[in-house]
């Protein structure tokens, strides 16, 4: 079917519903979502925030700073049984995940983008059915960021401060109201639940555009992505790796807080008195010494510098050949978490001679 | 679609001791249909599963026979391999795969084939020798250079006479050292010391090498010095693997997954990658 530009515009307008939500109605809207979904959202935890189950709409704090832990736990749990066995046979295949829909409310664009990276890994040639089941049950209500943190650089990675795709619903703060846009049929239904919704005017989309432009000016960190994967590979022997090796603690916090680090270990657990047990998949970490160990004590990444280079390279370079997009979504968590201030944006700058 | 992590049950039909720590296991899938479907290229690997102990990757050391039985030759050096070492004939194990890319057996047709192996690196190359022997007229000369630490560490010694009888084939053996009171009529020295007498030339040939990475490093250097091009040298790499299907991340070398893009690589495809001893 050929669609003229004009037709396409109007058709697009119909297919992507949007509404205005007055801020005083936010709580009642969240309340009605809680009636339908298992809702998780940003809640204060100490001086920080964490995505937790929301039982009452007032618990959500939408004006939140990057959560310490990323949202990968909803798609890729830290530990999960992948099969059960009894007497030398597979006896059980755990389905994994909640059967009911889980709605994540107030997801930052970097975190919403991280799901697309994980999809590439677990829904490629070999589908991980447990992942797919969880993924299909996740509803993403994202919110465009207006106050990036010191460590944020999503604007460089094409993953923020707003989103073009990868959400069911996108909220944009327009001071007294939110512009609420749908990105999926599920999103359409959620928008229909907005109390006293009004139709947005072209000026509301203009305000959204201006808000994004204003936010872009606030970023402190920047990564130039042009030819970055290739430049990284030309700098595997850059002297900066010696410096990093000297200061690096190999603590693995960067990997733990990375929203797209997906590497895992598989091990068997069994009851002491029988041959029954489970095969368990659990998060692993490439900056730890044991990660690349092979039989007889061989280890191809014994060097700490080589291990952190693997983490950086996977995020900024190797990912392109592996799955066609940057793994790094610019959330800045690894920079915040690093006890010795190793900064992925500095690495990216040094490989271009910065 | 089937869950890729569920292994097929297989029986260990036969166990043959190769050396003090290495055995060849003849394995056959129990399910008749799966057995018929099981097709494998020389150099590919399987994940062997011992429930309650774990899984590990192993290359096949034979082409599956008409009954669907195949061999895998394993050295007992870790948790899983040591547990397997205690298994007896008739025991049931789990098998997933085969996975990865094997030796360039098709593109090697019409060419001379040089095989350079070290220690436990010989088993993944044995199917190549069988294939060439079976389809002898399809390939040029066959030269096998094999090194082990000591004479009693050599794998498949009972087949060497047959290999030598393959038309236009040459087998040379070497060991790092010979203990006192041991008869050894072959070369002493690392495998590259056999390169002086090498009969294979770079013209119209292909090299397949497998062994410890440090050995392959010197093999590659020696070959390049003799005028072989990186595009005609194939190496089989060993890395930690947990999944075999490019998800767990352990076997990555730069952008490559050894499980999916390898374990056999054309040297020119991996030169310059990080964390590689080659």
Q: What fraction, in percent, of the residue positions of chain B are helical?
A: 10-25%
Please give the radius of gyration of chain A in angstroms: 22 Å
Structural class of chain A: alpha/beta
Q: Walk across the major sheet of chain A and give the strand order.
A: 1-9-8-7-6-2-3
Count of helical regions of chain B: 7
Helix content of chain A: 25-40%
Order of helices and strands of chain B: EEHEEEHEEHEHEEEHEEEHEH
> Which CATH top level class of the largest domain in chain B fits?
Alpha Beta
Largest interface: A-B, 50 and 40 residues
Query: What coarse outline of chain B follows from CA principal-axis ratios?
Result: globular
CATH superfamily of the largest domain in chain B: Nucleotide-binding domain of ferredoxin-NADP reductase (FNR) module
Detailed description of the structure:
The complex is a heterodimer of chains A (354) and B (278). Chain A is α/β, with parallel strands linked by helices. Chain A has 2 domains: 16-216, no CATH class; 228-350, no CATH class. Chain A contains 13 helices and 11 strands. In chain A, helix 9 crosses helix 11 (304-323). Chain A is globular. Residues 1-13 of chain A have low confidence and may be disordered. Chain B is of the alpha/beta class and 278 residues long. Chain B folds into 2 domains: 8-99, Translation factors (Elongation Factor Tu (Ef-tu), domain 3); 112-270, Nucleotide-binding domain of ferredoxin-NADP reductase (FNR) module (Rossmann fold, 3-Layer(aba) Sandwich). Chain B has 7 helices and 15 strands. Chain B has helices at residues 32-37, 79-85, 126-134, 160-165, 213-225, 258-261, 267-270, and strands at 8-17, 22-29, 45-50, 54-59, 70-75, 92-99, 112-118, 142-148, 169-175, 187-188, 205-210, 233-236, 252-253, 256-257, 264-266. In chain B, strands 10-9-8-7-11-12-15 form a 7-stranded mixed sheet. In chain B, strand 1 (8-17) and strand 2 (22-29) form a beta hairpin. The A-B interface holds A 82-83, 85, 88-90, 93, 121-122, 124-129, 233, 236, 262-268, 270, 275, 277, 279, 284, 286, 291-296, 298, 300-301, 306, 309-310, 313-314, 317-322 and B 1, 3-7, 9, 51-55, 75, 77-78, 81, 92, 94, 213, 238-240, 242-243, 245-250, 252-255, 257, 272, 274-277.
């Amino acid at each position: 079917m050929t669609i003229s530009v004009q037709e396409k515009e109007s058709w697009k307008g119909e297919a992507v519903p949007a509404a205005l939500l007055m801020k005083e109605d936010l709580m009642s809207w969240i309340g009605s979502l809680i009636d339908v979904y298992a809702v998780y959202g940003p809640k204060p935890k100490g001086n920080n925030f964490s995505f937790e189950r929301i039982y009452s709409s007032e618990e959500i704090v939408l004006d939140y700073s990057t959560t310490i832990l990323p949202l990968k736990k909803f798609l890729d749990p830290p530990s999960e049984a992948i099969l059960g066995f009894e007497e030398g046979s597979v006896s059980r295949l755990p389905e994994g995940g909640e059967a009911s829909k889980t709605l994540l409310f107030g997801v930052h664009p970097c975190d919403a983008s991280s799901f697309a990276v994980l999809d590439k890994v677990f829904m490629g040639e070999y589908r991980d059915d447990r992942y797919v089941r969880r993924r299909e049950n996740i509803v993403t209500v994202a919110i465009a960021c207006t106050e990036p943190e010191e460590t944020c650089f999503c604007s460089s990675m094409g993953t923020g401060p707003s989103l073009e795709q990868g959400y069911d619903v996108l909220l944009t703060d327009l001071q007294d109201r939110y512009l609420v846009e749908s990105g999926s049929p599920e999103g359409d239904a959620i928008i229909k639940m907005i109390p006293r919704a009004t139709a947005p005017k072209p000026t509301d989309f203009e305000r959204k555009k201006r808000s994004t432009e204003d936010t872009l000016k606030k970023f402190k960190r920047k990564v130039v992505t042009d030819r970055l994967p290739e430049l990284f590979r030309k700098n595997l022997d850059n002297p900066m790796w010696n410096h990093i090796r000297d200061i690096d603690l190999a603590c693995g916090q960067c990997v733990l807080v990375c929203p797209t680090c997906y590497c895992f270990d598989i091990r068997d657990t069994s009851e002491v008195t029988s041959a029954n047990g489970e095969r368990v998949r659990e998060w692993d970490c490439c900056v730890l010494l044991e990660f690349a160990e092979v039989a007889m004590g061989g280890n191809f990444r014994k060097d700490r510098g080589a291990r952190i280079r693997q983490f950086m390279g996977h995020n900024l370079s190797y990912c392109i050949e592996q799955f066609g997009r940057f793994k790094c979504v610019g959330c800045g968590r690894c920079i915040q978490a690093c006890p010795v201030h190793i900064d992925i944006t500095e690495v990216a700058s040094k490989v271009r001679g910065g | 679609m089937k869950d890729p992590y569920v292994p097929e049950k297989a029986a260990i039909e036969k166990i043959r001791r190769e050396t003090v720590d290495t055995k060849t296991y003849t394995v056959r899938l129990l399910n008749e249909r799966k057995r018929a479907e099981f097709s494998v290229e020389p150099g590919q690997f399987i994940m062997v599963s011992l429930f309650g102990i774990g899984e590990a990757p192993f290359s096949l050391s034979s082409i599956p026979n008409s009954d669907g039985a195949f061999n895998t030759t394993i050295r007992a050096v870790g948790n899983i391999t040591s547990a397997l070492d205690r298994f007896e004939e008739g025991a049931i194990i789990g098998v997933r795969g085969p996975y990865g890319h094997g030796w360039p057996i098709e593109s090697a047709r019409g060419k001379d084939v040089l095989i350079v192996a070290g220690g436990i690196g010989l088993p993944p190359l044995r199917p190549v020798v069988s294939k060439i022997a079976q389809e002898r007229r399809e390939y040029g000369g066959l030269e096998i250079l094999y090194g082990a630490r000591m004479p009693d560490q050599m794998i498949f010694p009972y087949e060497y006479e047959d290999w030598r009888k393959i038309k236009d084939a040459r087998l040379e053996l070497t060991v790092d050292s010979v203990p006192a009171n041991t008869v050894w009529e072959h070369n002493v020295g690392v495998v590259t010391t056999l390169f002086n007498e090498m009969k294979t030339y770079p013209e119209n040939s292909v090299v397949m090498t497998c062994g410890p990475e440090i050995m392959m490093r010197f093999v590659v250097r020696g070959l390049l010095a003799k005028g072989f091009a990186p595009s005609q040298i194939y190496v089989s790499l060993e890395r930690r693997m947990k999944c075999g299907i490019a998800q767990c991340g352990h076997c990555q070398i730069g952008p490559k997954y050894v499980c999916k893009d390898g374990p056999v690589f054309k040297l020119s495809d991996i030169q310059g990658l990080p964390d590689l001893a080659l």
